[in-house]
Amino acid sequence: MHRRALLASLGLATAGCLAPADDRADTAMSQTADATDTATATDSADHGTDTSTDTPVDYPEIGVPSDEAGGPPFDDDVVRVVWWGDERPDSPVRLAVDRRSGSLPEATFGFSLVNDSDLPFAYNPYNWGLWKRVDGSWYYVAPQIVPQPLSILSPGSEHAWRLTVDVDRSLPDSQYGGPQGSESVTIGGLGGGTYAFETDGWFEGQDYRESTGLAVRFVLDGDPLTVTLADSVTETSRGGSTVTVRTDVQSTAETRPCVFVLERADDPEAERRIPEQIVRDPRLRKTLPAFEPGVDTVRLVEPNGTVPPFGVNDPWTFRFRGTAYRVTARELETETETETETETETET
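^ that's the sequence the OP posted. Answer follows.
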């Protein structure tokens, strides 16, 4: 799945910032106006700047067609890919790495976008992506939000990223949070496995819709990631097959009582999510680990200030460890409604 479609399906697309893929538009989320003014959600198709020219230029044809690369998928505007999988690519523009493996709990990798061509290369230093390969498929991990400046990499120069993996790094409290940066980034919430770091760009004067993707594979040695209940959870109570979760989130003038509902579903088409994706959505960290034998529904009752509540427009589903789940959310009409629902629960 491409990055843009994935973020929309996870409910991370941002109204006004990200145009979600058509088949994922029903799960697009809204974002507060102040964040909208400063950053856009990940969408490498929305570069905002066209450096194309009418003057004929003999652009080098580097890499291979995107459907032949073998690495993580790119959006449709990437037509060729330089992929460092088993062998180092022989390409004037490439993504290099200083080490191919590291060990948890902490490891640091240096990645460099190298331009040894004769032409300037346009790119966004914030537009890097981290993917994990599981059971033969690639799953997008981070970042969730990407600022959109355009930079030019001159011939003979390079841009470096320093990625530090730290299992003790705290996870974001917002689905719009998480690591982002143009040079140095520290990221938590990763387990052992095979990963890829990627970016994309195009030669100056070239149409950005004919971009080149660049990616490199690396390995993290360590234990698999475990999804545990968020630290902000202060109370869980069970009534029959339903668990209700409450947190330390406080009401403000901008919030109202809302409920986020996660329930088991019968949907064979639900797309798989891996732990590294689940932990980056605090709504799921507060609900998914509360499932136990005999529980069919977990409700998160919490003050929320987004529109629609918890950013959920329409129901959407996903699959985690063989079980499908359905997501819905709504505003509770009154505080009395919240209290009435609580009275039917038995504290555990």
